[in-house]
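Subject: Sanity check before I submit

Could someone independently write out the structure tokens for this chain? I want to compare against mine line by line before I put it in a report. The sequence has 115 residues.
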Amino acid sequence: MRVFFTISLTILFLTVNAQDQIRLSQFMFNGIVNNPGCTGSHEVFTFNISHRSQWLGFDGAPKSQNISLDWPFKKENFALGILAVNDEIGSRSNKSVFLNYAYRIPLSNGKLSLD
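---
Independent answer below. Compare away.
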């Protein structure tokens, strides 16, 4: 019984923790927010800034901002990027910085990557 309780409690906390991802309605313009494999997918240096405000006029309304930069290194078949995220909901605030790395495998007719 103790093992069952421990496993149930662990799964509960993992599920709650997994639901803490920012939501952006314009995710298609900055794929790095949801998928680090999109780093360097535009084949040029890319700089993105996004802001989202929800429930305007209410105190503690959710707000999310992110800034990302990514650089493709074409000759070396990889890309580097950085993503800074600020997410505010009520009195809770979450600030994060992520470093991204994407490697492309050259094939005879194209490339293999996680774009």
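---
OP: Matches mine. For the report I'm noting this point. Confidence is low (pLDDT under 50) at residues 15-19.
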